[in-house]
Model the fold of this input.
Amino acid sequence: MEQPVRRVLPAATVPRLQAPAAVADFFAENLSVARGAEPDAPDLLVPASAKTLFVPTAPFMTEGHMRLPVGRQRMEILHISDYQGVGEALRARAESGPLTQAFEPRLLRQARRRLGVGHVNKGGPWMYDEPALRDVRRLISAPFKPAAASALQARARDTSATVLAEMLSHDSTEIDVGMLANEVHFRMMAHVMGVEDALAVRFRKWMRTFNESESLATLKWQPDIRRTLRSQVRAAERAHRRGNDSPGLLGHLATERLGGARLADTPLRPSDVVSLLWAVIAAGTDTPGTAAAAAVYFTVQSGDFPELRDQGRARAAVAEGLRYYPPFPKPLSKVRRDCSIGGAELRRGQWVEVHLPAANRDEGWFSRPHRFDLDRADARNARPFGDVPHYCIGSHYGVMVGTEVISVLAEALPTLALVSDRSRYRRHTGLLHRLDSLPMRTKPG
Done:
């Protein structure tokens, strides 16, 4: 599709919203427009306080503050929401590009990696730029590539059926779909990592606490994550030295580290391995967990849910749900040198926040963009997983697991229905816009 030539707006002419009330009103009005465009479309289950754009608009600036472990950092944030501008901003995070997701000061990062201190999340793929990010992808992507994901399909289906049966044995009248989807993910992650199934319970606890954090800068302290995963890494490395490699991603990373693997210009450290293992636990809840639960929520409202017994329809529902409301909707990047992004001039030290829900509803790329449509002909244009270089490593795996969860659920309970008390449905709008609770009645009534 031919793109219009952009006129770059000088920094002084980019519209600014400064008063908190004006900012809140702007986002609320944008959400209202999205809801009004298709009155019969499934409810998004998002409060106006989420400050997320669902209708593309011209770039504008706001002022905010990022909470730090000590104090706060003032931020000038450019909001970009049209399809072309969002793509430009996402690609600007490539090697030598003007945007970065590596917010942590270099010296602090080196000390954290060397000493093995701080929250393990600080070492995840989202905190690296190229060329280190290229090494991260090489180290952890193998289990999530299309062929490897397909090989896990039968296990994902069996795990989904097992977890569903366990939940129905406790309560046959109501089921929390969010809990079902996440439990399947955690058990699958234990298998992919090559650790005991019992650790899935720990994964669940860690993620519950992690998701309660207000920002990546103020993560709740969880020393048990580093302690437990470090113990697993040590055991895997001992096994490798004895010539008895551990299975799964854990064994692979232990072998790579002892074999001299590097992250850009520095050796892969034990603390890096711990952070990368945590990354596949944490990041994996986006699609298998949140997106699968959201697809059920949307299709129960649209009337499409019984069709999801067919895996092709289930896969289409996951894909459309990801377009309709991506679980990680607002990637944030820092400007590391003066540049122009999305048609606006930026200075070093400012920030760019892209709004994927709005970009995925750009009328230049999607027909009736606010409609929830499993048969959407332009679905391939959606950007639910960002773009290179930070495109989601586990996208194929996540869609596969999400598909199995909802197809098993639709086959067992095709008459699934919303509960009468809609206040029980909650969407958290912190790090991930995940569904906190998604109870469903197993039978209409």
Summary: Residues 367 and 377 are 9 Å apart (CA to CA).
